[in-house]
Amino acid sequence: MRRGNPDSAFDGRPQIAIINTASDLAPCNSHLDEVAQSVENGIWEAGGVPLNLPMISLGETQMRPTAMLWRNMAAMATEELMRANPIDGAVLLGGCDKTIPALLMGASSVNLPSIVVPGGPMLTGTFRGSPLGCGTDVWRMSEQVRAGLLSKAKFLDSESAMIRSRGHCNTMGTASTMGILAEALGMTLPGVAGTPAPDSRLLQAAHNSGRRIVEMVTADLKPTDIMTKASFENAIITLASIGGSTNAVVHLLAIAGRLGLDLTLNDFDRVGSRIPLLVNLQPAGKYLMEDFYRAGGLGAVFRQLSQVLNSEAITVTGKSITSTIDDGEIFDPEVIKTFDAPLQKEAGIAVLHGNIAPLGAVIKPSAASPALLKHSGPALVFESYEDFHARIDSDDLDVTADSVLVLRGCGPKGYPGMPEVANMKIPGKLVELGVTDMVRICDGRMSGTAYGTVILHVAPESAAGGPLSKIKSGDIIELDVPARTINVKLSDTELNSRPVSALTENAYARPDRGWQRLYIDHVMQADTGADLDFLVGTSGSDVTRESH
Prior knowledge:
The chain is about 35% helix and about 10% strand. The protein is of the alpha/beta class. Strands 7-8-12-11-10-9-13-14 form an 8-stranded mixed beta sheet. It is globular, with a radius of gyration of 23 Å. It starts with 14 loop residues before the first strand and ends in a 26-residue tail after the last helix.
């Protein structure tokens, strides 16, 4: 136990774990030790005992082959250590993309009182007089380099300007999205999500979260009380209104699976696809997270959504989410729009079905080219990400702007880990002609900071025998987002009779030991959240054996 604590620390006081994903190898989370200190102060003040519990830290920019491979490991570790240690509640500190989902998955399974403190976005950096969006502008400027419009030296110079402070990506990428959705689910104090990482108000919120978790333990307010089906529907509505990351789909499905809730891929289309886009942030818009916070933040968005949010959902305050919305004033109407005059009228994630994706696939219309949302063109198939890299810039590549790029072998099992590679770069010969977007299809994911007409999370994936593994270059692909369909123009008989591509099979990862072996043997498909099959459902906090 903590060294130097008086006997009174064990006299019935709530023992609170601060589950801290700080790491120098996860730059987005490197400041969480300071945040943890403020949480600790709040716990002491409220009469609890804070206990630092370091957790697996998943850094998006550093980990290979992909951070998503270890989301379920971090979730398992969170669950098992919360159960194994003598604690009464937990404060969950996360920032980078996979950390908040993993912490929520683990806390949901063990179901002890828990509260999230998001690490927050970095401040806006500028380069050559213009603000830079972390991630989104990397994609944009890398294409400028390929087109000869920007030198490699200047491109590298932009990095130090872009990352000017602590915190995660300042676009509406996955990290920003999941911090906001943690609040939409009711798992943060109202008004915390989106607070910039260097802002002193984040430390104030962390202190207050430390106080509140002690009260939650006293009230026995648990994740299953807060994260109900109504809460997830509110999160889906919020996801659409902010132009959030498609990665939120697999994360919300996985969290709901841990809670035993009947949330499906089709719920995202049913609940969120007709919701207007209110937030003008990259990659779907113009501004960045620091602008979002000064313009009124999530409170202003919630005020605009009050007519569609489910008031039955509660938050860590114990009150209805709609009752915790303050005046919600919009301070900059260029950044946050009203419900009646939005940036786009219908901007939520669209769920597609068809003979390419029998279990579904997703697309983010707000980040796509409107002219490509209905498109027909010949497939150009890449058997693996390595095959794609080897051929995409070849002068001999048989490709036109009407081609549909197909990348397979990138799903949960096939890679393994479902990497963010679906937003394939445009072939070099087309970049030189000024082509900036094409229809792309993949069983992997794409960064929440990315943009383009990309169909992703195709299920079942190629490595699970999905139809994507049978498509050949030249097959005609038909995309119709308004009709919610994605098909290859082949009869069922012909498609079913085709064998899986031998090249694709040879490209699949085949680990023989460790976590990767366990992952491949048990990971589920994207349409259910890509969790491990034996981790679905809540199992409580009871310890089965006692050796002490």
